């Protein structure tokens, strides 16, 4: 596992170089489902680069990836990689910063290793359960648990309009709401103790790497809807410190 | 004015050193009006430092400041300085980053010079109408105007719960909502083109410096409530590119 970890870290840094080179060149932006659900040729080329390299490193593994260059995965037995080449594509397009590249390695449905690269800040968060979590070469300690009232939180604002699951009460009982627009960067903020909670509807590639890292620091990763945590489908999930998670579950329905 | 500008820039860098030294030491945190309206001894000491230095630089000017070490200002004739020692105090306390120090110089009620220091990123935005706007030593160009649908926006989330002034429509017609938790940093994001709109209820010290910089780049700074723009009181104000401002005024009531 240590050799694989080293190979995947090297891959993440190579993917960063690839992304920066593609950004510096001309790239195309297209809408997927709506005007604010974007994909770019940088997403696609970076994903192609990562999946090709994963096939060399681990030829028999399956790959789940956002833009479709991976496999059709229906069962999670054995080793499965989950790839998000550009997490926070709107930020990528509108801000040229505040986006991440994410990769996770699962075995028999369980998170083993997670990687979140904050591309523009040149910072790789990596690790997993039993391995610990590192920010580049520095080990991270679990964040201070300030409970909900003492914490800044990030709650998907789509939920907020309709007060879905009573999330307005969660926000009103927290210190304040922040929205950064990239699941990977929100989860980094929870790892670093800058947010006590991230609550959003997440697709497999949005959560997989962050879950490995969050569980590696003893944080809570849990679905708040009836469906439970599912690596293959979209879920309404929280990533939080223990006390914050307890406070949230007392409020949501 | 160029000499004064140079003196005020030097003051901003000195204030940054002061803030960093106070952060490294023990500081106290107190609640002001509610559990999430905080003030720290760093706010107070930094403000005391800035106001004392302003009294040396410009002995006859008046000073409006958040924590009360300035003057009681009732009219804006002559030169008035407006000081916010720590903008984004919640971020300061919970994140130890994402806060700003702000200073503005007004003459007869008109913005002349503005300064926003992103303390942890060591970046000073400075300038004003007729002077241009600079990021440290580099001149900034006006941001690209993408209109509301093409822009990420920051809208105070207190307004969102109640749909005050129909702000939910503003958000639904934008590319996405972001919330960073510091008026100074939100306005920097508008200057840099990373946000097309910042809309919030702002106190004099939240807006004064940002207004000088935004108007220095030809951006729109305008009250959306009946009260109009008022340097001495709290307003519901937008800072936006021209097309975004037009799009917003067509939606709000």
TrEMBL record, chains A, B:
**Cofactor annotation:** Mg(2+)
Pfam families attached to this UniProt entry: Inositol_P
Classification via Gene3D superfamilies:
3.40.190.80, Fructose-1,6-Bisphosphatase, subunit A, domain 1
Q: Which SUPFAM superfamilies match?
A: Carbohydrate phosphatase
Phylogenetic classification of the source organism: Bacteria, Bacillati, Bacillota, Bacilli, Lactobacillales
Residues at which Mg(2+) binds: 66, 84, 87, 206
Cite the PANTHER family for this sequence: INOSITOL MONOPHOSPHATASE, INOSITOL-1-MONOPHOSPHATASE-RELATED
| Domain of life assignment | Bacteria
Sorted alphabetically, which InterPro entries does this protein's record hold?
Inositol_monophosphatase-like (IPR000760)
Protein name per the record:
Myo-inositol-1(Or 4)-monophosphatase
The alphabetical list of record keywords is: Magnesium, Metal-binding
Which organism is this protein's natural source? Limosilactobacillus ingluviei
A single GO BP term for this record reads:
signal transduction
């Amino acid at each position: 596992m240590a050799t694989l970890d080293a190979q995947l870290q090297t891959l993440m840094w190579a993917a960063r170089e690839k992304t920066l080179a593609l950004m510096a060149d001309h790239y195309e932006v297209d809408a997927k489902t709506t005007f604010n659900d974007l994909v770019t040729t940088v997403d696609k080329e970076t994903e192609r680069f990562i999946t090709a390299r994963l096939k060399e490193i681990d030829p028999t593994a399956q790959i789940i990836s956002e833009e479709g260059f991976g496999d059709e995965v229906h069962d999670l037995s054995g080793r499965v990689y989950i790839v998000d080449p550009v997490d926070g594509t709107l930020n990528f397009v509108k801000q040229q910063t505040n986006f991440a590249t994410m990769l996770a390695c699962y075995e028999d449905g369980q998170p083993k290793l997670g990687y979140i690269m904050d591309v523009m800040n040149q910072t790789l968060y990596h690790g997993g359960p039993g391995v610990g979590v590192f920010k580049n070469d520095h080990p991270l300690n679990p964040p201070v648990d300030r409970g909900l009232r003492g914490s800044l939180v990030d709650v998907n604002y789509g939920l907020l309009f309709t007060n879905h699951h009573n999330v307005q009460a969660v926000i009103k009982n927290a210190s304040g709401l922040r929205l950064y627009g990239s699941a990977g960067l929100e989860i980094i903020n929870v790892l670093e103790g800058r947010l006590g909670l991230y609550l959003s509807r997440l697709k497999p590639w949005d959560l997989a790497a962050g879950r490995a890292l969050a569980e590696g620091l003893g944080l809570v990763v849990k679905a708040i809807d009836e469906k439970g945590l599912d690596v293959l489908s979209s879920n309404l999930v929280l990533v939080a410190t223990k006390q914050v998670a307890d406070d949230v579950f007392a409020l949501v329905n």
